[in-house]
Amino acid sequence: MTSHGTTFRFILMLTLLATVIGCGGAETPEPETFSLDSATEHKDHDHAPGDQPTSEAIDWCREHSVPESVCTQCDSTLIAGFKATGDWCGGHGLPESHCRLCNPQIRFPQEERLRELALAESDGDIAVSLLFRPNSSVCATNDALIQFASETTAERAGLSVHQVRSQSVASAIEAPAELVFDESASTVVSTTIPVLVSRWLVSPGDPISEGDVMAVVQSPAMADLQADLLSAFAADKVQQKEVARLEALKARDLVSEADYEREVAHGERTRAEYIALRGLLKSAGLSEGDLSEILAHRKISNHFALRAPSDGVLVERKARVGDLLAAGEALALLADPAAMWIEARVSGVQLRQIERGQELTFSSDGRGLSRVGGRVIWVSRYLDPHTRTGTVRAEVVDRSHYLNAGEFGRVSIAGSQNDHVILVPKDAVQWEGCCNVVFVRETDYRYRPRKIEFHDGAGPYYRVTDGLRAGEDVVVNGAFLLKTELKKSSIGAGCCGIEPVG
Prior knowledge:
With about 500 residues, the protein is of the alpha+beta class. Among the domains are: about 5-45 and about 50-160 and about 430-460 and about 470-490, no CATH class; about 190-330, no CATH class. The chain is built from nine helices and 23 strands. The protein has a six-stranded antiparallel β-barrel. Helix 5 packs antiparallel against helix 6 (about 255-285).
């Protein structure tokens, strides 16, 4: 770092009141709070005996995030009792068992009950973004404030702000999804007789053409079928000659019409038996060439070559070498690597908003910037009894993609309804350790971190679902600097929170 840069940093650290001021400051305005029970605060709190209690009926202080009955900030007469038992944090003026700044892992039973009520009152239509970590329900950010010494100091820090705006956009459904092979373009390799794999000649990932030898297998039933084939072939040849002989005699009126027709029927049965045996051997895995080889050389063996029934890529070898498999068991799986299905799991409410033909976008967890388009081809009309979700299946439109079956990711399904959403620049959003925050400008030298809930959006914007209003100013350039000052102020001996200034 240059001398000039070091000097500027030193001056900035001295002039910035690195002051993340706690809620005890007399001049600090009341912070906006987004608590677990915000979904229920407009509900009717009167309920008859036997009804489910509302959030108001639970022993909980929304303002200070502790049980109402033991909240020392609402009832100061309780302080003496906590101090008498040694349960007191002198640094923050709270009972040690309530101080989340010193003990961030604190959880009260009422919090889980409030969460259950909030989820129950949402009718299952919960908007979940799979891209971002969820916010902690209670943390020191709720009561923080960053204040510069003057407007000049704020200008020298290089902060720039952007006014949050509202825009009408098409609604979208986000859901977890998985890539699977198109079942209509997949083939299961099996045989109609019990077999044992002696040796595999191909490996998973190898391209396969119809008729290629995939493995050498053996089966006692194969020798029996080949013997029956030779017998049926010989019988058919003899019978066809007999029919030809009787046909010549019939032309000279030396045999009756009935005897001739009886022999013809017998010949058809013999031919049918021969054709049936050929079919059994082909279904067992032999090709026309293999059958011709057996008939030409009269050679019988319990070993034979297992051939591919269609083109594709070998996805999986299901049979292990040396394992004896029953008739009909799968030996391998072939699939077309370009033909993929996207299967998404959505809630019952979302399921009713999706129709065949809708377009969607799939992005892999491993390659968030690599996306592929799809078209919905099937919408489930039943829900899983355990997860209460339904399946939406789409075909991948771009067959030149580089995605792999089994990849997990997310889908975004565009809807027909237009909603007004709050848009915030992506550079303004910072993860400060437990929450996604933006820094809202209150004055030219005071900035307050604000927790927000948001989803991915188009271009350089996120779609904010909670925590911001249109018209507010948020820091874009310099947001990371403010986050750094916010985190520096939370480092102290035995304390992971914000040191309040009295």
